[in-house]
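Q: How would the structure tokens look for this protein?
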Amino acid sequence: MSTPIKNRYDFVLVFDVKDGNPNGDPDAGNLPRTDAESGQGIVTDVCLKRKVRNYVQLIQAEATGYGIFVKEKAVLNNLITGAYNTLSIDLTQPPANEKDGKTRTKEGAGQKGEIDKARAEMTRTYFDIRTFGAVMSTGANAGQVRGPVQMTFARSVDPVVTLEHSITRMAVATEAEAEKQGGDNRTMGRKNTIPYGVYVAHGFVSAHLANQTGFSEDDLKLLWDALTNMFEHDRSAARGLMSTQKLIVFKHDSALGNAPAHKLFERVAITRNDPSKPPRDFSAYTLTIDRKGLPEGVEIIEK
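A: Here is the predicted structure in token form.
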């Protein structure tokens, strides 16, 4: 892994979905998430981070330093304990620096110096901890990490229409179902989609927090690759056609930054070409970036 980054970054992620459900809400029968007041579609930051994690896990295949902490079927406390084992710290024994025979306040709990070492080991081992941070005080205790990369919810440019479709499977699951249907053997189901939507999410990369976690230039490059290509490896019948249409990065020439993020984001505009027609693909929109009067020390990178 290379040197931690020295620049602040703010970015805009533009992606679209056609005939799919970009992020179902389990509290609403898995309907696509929407803002009840505006009708705009919503994709949570957690959903987007999951796709980044999945991409890194696929591309790096758990290479050294690129493990994924929060992944499918993971037992997080076991991974935290694993960091202590790597450091040869036995959590069932009194701390090595205790000379008066004191025992741990809680069996299996790390002490101050041990927690710092375990936290550093976790950030070295897991890409998503270095990137997004993590709470690791649920078991053996490796403290908490505040990640340098943060993302907002994605919102659709226009209101979206949620559709519910009846679907049929020409098979049943049990003999009892077959007998009940007299051999017709059909199973009815439901599928929820939106016809089309363009979504915009915003993100931030802090150089100061990157120095605390070891988030590096190599990690940053991998993050850009993930945001650009993550939908290509996340296909499913439920999500339809999802694609990253544009990643716009504002690079500051300093760690503190040279302009407020919201002012930079205002330079990106997405407008519908013909408001009288419902959009069904990205060509129905025009994306523009205002480069005039760009604050000194800010560079725009398009991916």
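Residues 45-60 form the longest helix (16 residues).

DSSP finds eight helices and 14 strands in the chain.

Upvote if useful.
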